[in-house]
Design a protein that fits this description.
alpha+beta, Nuclear Transport Factor 2, Chain: A, 3 domains, 13-stranded mixed β-sheet, 12 helices, 45% helix, extended
């Protein structure tokens, strides 16, 4: 019986074995194909990075070689520097370096791209390169040469020894094996060398310099956890702060430290009140009181009035509503600072108001706190009538006022804000009040058209349908 059964089962077992072998072979082939494809992509990105850094060094040299009065040549060279730097950043993002400290080189390239872009879009006939900017370009030329030389060294070793980037990925992912890979060592050396470069003057429009300057604008003394508890209790109007939990956040740099406050609510943490304060000065930058709102008994205008009064009662004075949204019976209203009838968009506060009882349930004030400073607004050199000539004559202008915005170079500029209708759409146009040039054009969403008509237009960057 067993002999007969084995005779019957043997062909099936053979077929199953053959099928398993074929399946395993196909799986192995598919895996190899994926690995080869990934390796080819890594190799291409690496060699492209080395090529672009070499071209970048050459382009910087060519830019420095032209006469300082050759505005067109400088502009062309700087545009090429910006393009190559941006492409180099993209190449780095395609390499498996997420677990490798390479942030100094990434920051250096980002600063170089920002620096070259700002210079390339500037009118050099009116504002040619100054001595400090020429010095920065010369330093970039020297640094790019050093980076190029280091990358070439790594490239030579990769090609001579047929090194694989897949091994780099495995080495970085390993927690136990020492990371002595040639490629890893080469990139670590590059990043360490970049970190040792002398700090460059990137100019006033640099984003790193701006962010640090904003943080250093904070006023007041450093607060303790107990002092923050008292501020939170006063804000919430409660006398007992014993159940509050305060946690200190941030790095060793005092300017970046914050305190997080949690006030336990009903349920399992879902209704906890959450607040964030800066350690320096104890400024409230975030507040959230989550709760379910079942219906809307009040309208957005009433919510705006309550939010405005709420801001007046705290440290956010002289604010004007510039945008609103409504979602699930909750109004989200954005306010901007008003100075001498000028709307200062960089200082914004967002307030959430429940439409069932007009309770303020949320606040986001980081832009206001870190952007608050003394400004010399000055007088516009271009009057309102001249500014209106810069927009299409067919536009039906509904409002016009002065406003401070941040342009694409992260510079604050005084503008004429013109809101008008054309081709069935509502537009906001910002015209530079100093030279009459167009700084920004935004299309206001249809659901915000009513707000614009009521004098509460969407703030720049607040979900526009289209931006030019």
């Amino acid at each position: 019986m067993y002999k007969r059964l084995s005779i019957v089962m043997f062909p099936f077992l053979v077929l199953a074995l053959i099928g398993a072998s074929v399946w395993g072979y196909l799986e192995h082939q598919e895996k190899n194909t994926i690995l080869i494809k990934a390796e080819n992509q890594y190799q291409r990105a690496f060699h492209d990075l080395s090529f672009r850094m070499d071209k970048l060094h050459t382009e910087l040299g060519n830019t420095l070689a032209v006469n300082s009065t050759s505005e067109a040549s400088y502009r062309k060279g700087l545009v090429n520097v910006w393009r190559l730097t941006s492409q180099a950043q993209n190449d780095i993002n395609q390499l498996p370096l997420t677990l490798l400290p390479f942030n100094k080189t990434g920051d250096f390239l980002a600063n170089m791209a920002n620096f070259s872009y700002r210079l390339s879009v500037r009118d050099m006939t009116k504002q040619p390169l100054n001595e400090q900017e020429m010095k920065t370009l010369s330093a970039l030329y020297d640094h790019s040469k050093a980076i190029t030389t280091s990358l070439r060294g790594v490239q030579d070793k990769v090609m001579a020894s047929n090194l694989r980037w897949m091994d780099v990925e495995s080495a970085l992912a390993s927690q136990n094996e020492p990371k002595d890979n040639v490629i890893i060592d080469g990139f670590s050396t590059v990043d360490k060398a970049v970190g040792a470069y002398e700090e460059l003057d990137w100019g006033p429009g640099n984003f790193n310099a701006l962010s640090q300057a904003d943080v250093k604008m904070l006023t007041g003394e450093e607060m303790t956890a107990d002092a923050i508890k008292q501020k939170a209790a006063q804000f919430l109007g409660i006398s007992d702060s014993g159940n509050m939990k305060v946690v200190e956040n941030g790095s060793s740099t005092p300017e970046y430290k914050t305190y997080s406050v949690v006030v336990p609510g009903a349920g399992h943490g879902e209704n906890d009140i959450q607040m964030d304060y800066t350690k320096k000065g104890g400024h409230l930058i975030y507040f959230m009181k989550p709760r379910t709102v079942q219906e809307s008994k009040f309208d957005l205008r009433q919510a705006r009035d309550v939010a405005n009064e709420f801001l007046d009662q705290h440290e956010y004075k002289d604010m004007s509503a510039v945008s609103y949204d409504q979602y699930q019976h909750i109004a989200n209203i954005v306010f901007a600072k008003r100075e001498k009838d000028v709307t200062v968009y960089p200082e914004q506060v967002s307030v959430r108001v429940a439409l069932d009882n007009l309770e303020v349930t949320g606040l986001q004030a980081s832009e206001y706190i870190f952007g608050h400073k003394l400004r010399n607004l000055g007088q516009p050199k271009v009057n309102a009538e001249e500014a209106r000539k810069s927009v299409n004559a067919k536009m039906e202008v509904s409002s016009q006022k002065l406003a401070v915005i941040e342009n694409e170079l992260n510079e604050e500029v005084l503008c004429h804000e013109i809101v008008g209708k054309m081709n069935g759409n509502l537009y906001r146009v910002f015209i530079n009040a100093d030279n009459g040039t167009e700084e920004k054009i935004e299309t206001i969403r249809p659901d915000q058209a009513a707000a614009a008509a009521a004098g509460a237009t969407a703030a720049p960057g607040q979900k526009p349908a289209a931006t030019k």
